[in-house]
Amino acid sequence: MDKDAAITVENLRKTYGSLTAVNDVSFAVQTEETFGIVGPNGAGKTTTIECLEGLKPPDNGHIRVLGFDPQKDRRALNARIGVQLQESNIAAQIKVWEALELYTSFYSNSVDPEELLEKLSLTPVRNSYYSKLSGGQKQRLFIALSLINNPDIVFFDELTTGLDPQARRLIWDLVRHVNDQGKTVVLTTHFMEEAERLCDRVMIMDHGQIIALDSPEKLIQNLGAEHKVIFSIKGDVQIEWFTNMASVENINIFRDKVTISGKDDRLLADVVNLLTARGIRHYDLHTQQPNLEDVFIALTGKEIRN
Amino acid sequence: MKSLLKLTWIEAKLFWREPQALFFTLIFPLLLLFVYGGIYGNKPKAVFGGFGHVDVSVPSYTAMIIATSGLISTSVIMATYREQKILRRFKATPLSPLILLTADVIVIFFMTALGMILLIAAAKLVFGMRFSGNAFSFAGAFVISCLSFFSLGFILASLIRTARTAQIVSMSIFFPMILLSGATVPLEIMPETIRSYAKIFPLTYVVQFLKGVWFGKAWSEYLTEILILIVMFVTGLLISAKTFRWE
């Protein structure tokens, strides 16, 4: 077992009746990393994270979170982790500051609730009832509750689902900030972009199994998909300009628009260097890179959002 | 301890923000008092052993408030918390279920006591209510009655999944019970057959006990009632501790 690991999971299995939600899953989460579990609805993400939090008993397997068995030492573990659940609420008629104070009282260690409200931009709604908050404000309040005990590990389950893009970006910044403070973050999402932007490592799940686990960069690299550099040129284009470069695999010229593709990471630098060296006037230069979404489609043969 | 105090205080505020619970605990008993007190007055009557209608009604209405809190408030609060997944969020903290249940019992007890105090104050000021018992003895009987009924409510709460069902089930037990146990209409004026049916309702024992003590009788004359209430309390406590679920 890895001694730097904040979480280790061996052969986790969980079934609901005849449905196998998680099927023999093993992985480890390193201390201070942001670890993403991604996959379509029903892939087993929430079941996995809730087994780690002690909310669900696994049928089989060995789990250690900060050295605790989440089932046997649930309350001791709860004191040291923070959670935001996909499905949960606080009382409709509770005010934001009251919720924070209430949850503060559950822990022997806690941070200053007012400071937390300030950090999460909740100070303007501190006297509002929970039921009156917007979706983004509710999620920020749940983040606040998950951080109130200054936890070592924070679990976020579908944190940004149902939020508009602006609220989502704000939440991303907050998650990065949490991780910057040295906390281990485990999150689930079905937004590939979210996983790519936030996570050090990503575990892709489908049908209760792990189908890939690596850093987003490596996952994309291993896909072997092509990068594309696209630009337009004023005047004549000569195809020979580009053919000598090792990183170039394919060149396509349509009228004044040039598309150069290749698998090598240096493609963009090579093309830009050449254009500069030769003094070729170009405009509208941009790149198209494979992303996690492409990785997912390549691995599962389907789009994630359905 | 810190969490018990905080949880109790917040739960009390939440109770106070819930109009339906407030109405049934604090306002409804006063409405009954004023309506029936207005109709029958409080003149001494032979059938009530020389006391008036209001004198007899106050301990009975107190029993009704206990039934309201015990059956309706307790079960609806817990079912709502479970249905809305508020308990689920609590489960992810070190909070112990015992603290949660204790906080609820404290809050509901104080609201019930407040309902009783308002009732007694109104009966005294408006109808010149007579009280010939010992206040401490009555308070003790009130506490026993509350605990036994709250534990009934917690049994209901652990069996019922949604707030809607909790409401329907608790109301359908509550109304026949308050009508036929002497909590609203005195059993003294009921036919013999109904009086014998009344024995199946736990509330009947609360009414007997409270009424007796209210008119100065000793606890020793109500050992059966006390025993039944204590058995209810212990059974309820055991069952609800055994069946408590966060989700």
Walkthrough of the structure:
- The complex is a heterodimer of chains A (306) and B (247).
- Chain A has 306 residues and is an alpha/beta fold.
- In chain A, 32% of the residues lie in helices and 28% in strands.
- Chain A has eleven helices and 13 strands.
- A six-stranded mixed β-sheet of chain A has the order 5-6-7-3-8-9, sandwiched between helices.
- In chain A, a hairpin with a 2-residue loop joins strand 1 and strand 2 (19-30).
- Chain A is globular.
- By secondary structure, chain B is an all-alpha fold.
- Helices cover 76% and strands 0% of the residues of chain B.
- Chain B has helices at residues 2-16, 19-40, 53-83, 86-91, 97-127, 135-159, 163-180, 192-197, 202-214, 223-243.
- The longest helix of chain B has 31 residues, at 53-83.
- Chain B is globular.
- The two termini of chain B are 24 Å apart.
- The A-B interface holds A 53-55, 75-76, 78-79, 83, 85, 87-94, 98, 101-107, 145 and B 2-3, 5-7, 10, 13-14, 17-18, 81, 84-86, 88-89, 91-96.
